[in-house]
Amino acid sequence: MSNSADSPRTGPTGSAPVRRSRFRPVRVLTAGVFALAGLLFFTSFNTAKGTDIRTDTSLLKLSDLIQERSRKNGELDESNATLREDVDSLAEADDGRTTAEDENLARLEDQAGTQKVKGKAVTVTLNDAPPNATAKLPGYPEPQPDYLVIHQQDLQAVVNALWKGGAQGIKVMDQRLISTSAVRCVGNTLILQGRVYSPPYKIQAVGDPDKLQQALADSPTIQNYMVYVNVYGLGWKVTEDGPVTLPGYSGTVDLHYAKPVE
C-alpha cells in the first residue's frame, strides 16, 4: 500500500475512486487577502458613516477652524452691539430712574467700558521684524527666530503703560478693552476676546497724549523692547491721532482677568 497523498483510494462501495485534495498555500493566501479587504472596507465604512472621508469637515485644519470661529465671534459681537443699542434706547425712553441714578449708572458704564469714549488719542503700532533681519549694531548676536516677532509680553507692556498713563479707554485692533480683557498670543497670532489677529498690532488709547507717551517711555519692559527695535528692526511707531471716538465694548465672550506684567 502506498502512503502517497496522490494515491487513488477505492470508496467503500467499490465505486469511483476518492481523490484526497492537496494542501495549497496559494488558496489560503488568496482567501486571507479577500478577508482582509473585507475587514478594511467595513472599517472604512463604519468610520465614515456612509460619507466620503476625503471631504469630511472634521479633517479641516485647526487654523481654518480657528479663523472660522473668530469670524463667527465677530458677527456675534456686531449683533450684540446692535441689540444693546436697541435696549438702551428703550430704557432711555421711560426708565423710571431719578437723575442721580442715571448719573451713577453712567459712571458705572464708563468704568465697565460699555460706552463710547471721545478725546485725543495716541496709537502704538507693533510689528514683526523682516524675516532676513540681522544685527544692526556691533556687539550683538545674530537674531534667533523669537527675536524677530511680537510677543504677548510686548503687547501687555504697551497696554499696561497706557493704563498707567491715565488712558480713559483703550482699543486693541478693532476691539475695546475692559477690566477683564486678556491680551494673549498663541504663536504669531493675537487672540483677543474670542477673535484672532495677525501683526501689525495697533493699540489706541484716549487720554492726555503727553502723559500717555511719557508712560510708554518710562516702562522698563518697553525700554527692553526698544533694544530689539534698534538692533533687529522690530516694528515700533507712536502717533498722535487728535480727537477720536473709541467704541464701547460689545463682546459676548466670557473672559479671564488680565494680569499686569509690571
Radius of gyration: 35 Å
- Total strand count, please? 8
Q: Which sequence of SSEs, written as H and E, runs from N to C? A: HHHEHEEEEEEHHE
Largest sheet: 5 strands, antiparallel
Quaternary state reads single chain
Strand order of the largest sheet: 3-2-7-1-8
Helical stretch tally: 6
Mean pLDDT: 74
Shape: flat
Report the span from N to C terminus: 102 Å
Helix content: 40-55%
Low-confidence stretches: 1-23, 43-60, 253-262
Strand content: 15-25%
What structural class should be given to the helix and strand makeup?
alpha+beta
Overview of the structural elements:
By secondary structure, the chain is of the alpha+beta class. The protein is built from six helices and eight strands. It has helices spanning 25-48, 62-93, 99-112, 152-164, 209-218, 220-232; strands at residues 117-127, 169-172, 175-176, 184-186, 189-192, 195-197, 201-206, 235-246. The strands form two sheets. A five-stranded antiparallel beta sheet has the order 3-2-7-1-8, with helices on one face. Strands 4-5-6 form a three-stranded antiparallel beta sheet. It is flat, with a radius of gyration of 35 Å. It starts with 24 loop residues before the first helix and ends in a 16-residue tail after the last strand. 20% of the residues are buried.
